[in-house]
Structure formats: C-alpha cells, structure tokens
Design a protein that fits this description.
Layout (H helix, E strand, L loop, with lengths): L2 H14 L25 E2 L9 E11 L2 E10 L2 E9 L4 E4 L9 E9 L5 E8 L4 E8 L4 E3 L8 E11 L2 E10 L2 E9 L4 E4 L7 E11 L2 E9 L4 E8 L4 E3 L9 E10 L2 E10 L2 E9 L4 E3 L12 E10 L2 E10 L3 E9 L4 E3 L10 E10 L2 E9 L3 E8 L1
Antiparallel strand pairs: 1-28, 2-3, 3-4, 4-5, 6-7, 7-8, 8-9, 10-11, 11-12, 12-13, 14-15, 15-16, 16-17, 18-19, 19-20, 20-21, 22-23, 23-24, 24-25, 26-27, 27-28
Amino acid sequence: MTRLRQSAGRFAAALAATLALAAALTGSAATGAATAPCEAWTGVPPPSPGATANHLLGTAVLSPCDAWAVGQSVDNGVTSTLTEHWDGATWKVVPSPSPGNGTSVRLTSVRADSTGDVWAVGSFFDGTETFTVILRWTGTAWTQVPSPNPGTANFLQAVKPVSANNAWAVGTYSSAGAFKTFIAHWNGINWTQISSPNPGPTNELESVAATSATNVWAVGISSTPTTDQTLILHWDGATWAQVPSPSPNSSDDLFGVAATSATNAWAVGSSLASGVDQTLILHWDGAAWAQVPSPSPGGPGMGSDLSSVVATSAGNAWAAGSYRVPVNAKLALALHWDGSNWTQVPTPNPSGALDELSAVGASSASNVWAVGSYESSSTLAFAIHCC
C-alpha cells in the first residue's frame, strides 16, 4: 500500500482516533548550541494540548533559540492545527488558524528561509471535500493565506521558501478519481498551481527542498496497481521535469528530501524487500541519483522506514523515522551521515513501545531537532534535540 493511500485514507480517521500511549518524556531541555560534535539525542518535552491526541509532523530550525514544530491536536473529537515554538529554553504552543470547523485538520510541514520567513502547510476536511491549508508567520501571529485547490481532495505535504517572493509547496490532489502531483508556487503576491509531471496512474509528492531559485527538488511516489516506484522531480528555473531515480524493489517510497548545493542532495524513504520495509537513502552528486547503504534496524521480519532528512553540508546529514522490534513495538530511528557512512544514533524512546519521528531539521551541525509522537494514555507530542 502506498503512502498516498495511507495518507488520504488515514487523514480523517487519524485526527479523530485515540491512540493508546505510554510514559512521559525524560531528559533535560537544551538551552543552545553545544560546542562539541553531535553525539547524543536528548528528550525535550513539548506541550500536548489535545486531551486525545497530539502529533508533531514538521519542524523548522532557524537558530539555537528559534525553532518551530507543527502538526495536529485532537481534544474530545475536535481537531485543531498545532504550532509550537522553541525559544531556547522551552517549547510553547502558539495559536494558529484551524479551518474546517473542528472536523479534520492538520499541518504537515513548516519551513523557513534564511531571513526567517516562515510558512506552514497542510489540509482540512469540511465533511465533504479536503482542502489545502497554507499559513504564514507574520512575526507576531499565524495567518491563513489563500491556496489553490485543483481537485476534490487536495493535500499539501511540504513547503520550502527560497526568499520572500519565492516559495514552493508540494503534495497531491484527486481529479476524476486519479491522484496527481500537486505543486504550488508563491510569487510574493499569491499561490498558484504549477504544471508538474505525472508518470504513473497514481502520483504523490511528499517533500521539497531548494538551494536557489533554479535548483529545487521534489520527491514522492509514482504507483501502478502492482508497484510503487520512487519519484523525483527537478525545477531548473523554467520547468519541472522528472529525473531518473533508483527503485530497488517493487514497492519504493520517498518521503523526505534535503539539499545543500547543486551537487549535494539526499532523498529518504523505504523499500519493501522480502515483505519487510527497509530504509532507503538516495544521493545526488550533480549528475545522477544513486542508492547509498543505510542501516535498517529491528528484529527478524521487522520493518524500518525514514520520513525526513536534513543536511547542513556535504559531510553532515540526519535522517529520522521509525523501526519495529518484537513484539509489535515501534521505536524512534535517527541516522547520521558523517561524510562517509550512515550510522544509527541511539534516541530516547519515552514509551518504549510506540514512538515515532516524523521530521528532522537543523540550523547547524550542532543544533538539530527531530519531532514526532508517542503513545501513553493519549498520543503525546515528542521532540528530541542533538547535541
């Protein structure tokens, strides 16, 4: 089953469902960037305002004293967008618009450019159709900005601002029963849909990265009834075009992308091998995408997947996700690239049974955040810091 079908099918149900969860976060809060290289992750408990469920799905890290995390909260059947800010000492909930009259709404991504221009995207269900949500931080408040909705079901999964007058958002939409790639562009005045390739019957974009106005990447999935293949698109300043990408097995998904230059980009996700999901990491060297070996922890028959990646240089990158161990436990997964190899770095797992990282962000090699959720008597927000 593709991530697209999981995302669309789970959207309304996941926001209204109660997840069974476990213990509280432990560890001390980080107060700034450390001088030593990254060696360990520390749990930093964020607020969980929803009585039923709280999920952090995206993060943007601007500095040691300025970071954002976004997602959703559910309080007795009423869903709301969830935005939280890190000020160098604590995470605090910041009010944000929640369209949809308390039905199903979520923010899936938050990103900022070098000047601190912050955008968040997601979607909401009004009881009949699903619409996109785009929010912008004005410096004092989150405001909703009009966004395109080309289909009857519209999802934005990721956003990346390049400058105040140039930002991209990607996702998927349904038209005549078929899911298609969805790319929207901000020109400083409004968001408009931009034409994008659809190589398969079903197509979805999950993540977007950019290093300049002429070097933008979007990744996701292109599916047929029997296969899921990696999908990578590139913007050269004029058009979006598909770029060949490895798909080692018959079910391969890309959920995250990051880039630091025209010759260094990473894409991460999962690949189904012998019935078990394995981590999948691809690298762009300026000429082609190639698969790079990556750890896939877990017990026999247990799966591993990566949902997000961030890079600060050619010699430093982080990927985050989850892996399963016996019996039916899911644990947070963090992998680090040191310029030569990807290795697993131990992380806090507050429940020890159902812990998941959805996104990772960094402002430097020594200031990295990963966010997600874990299960106790309700679903609680999860944030860890390195280093």
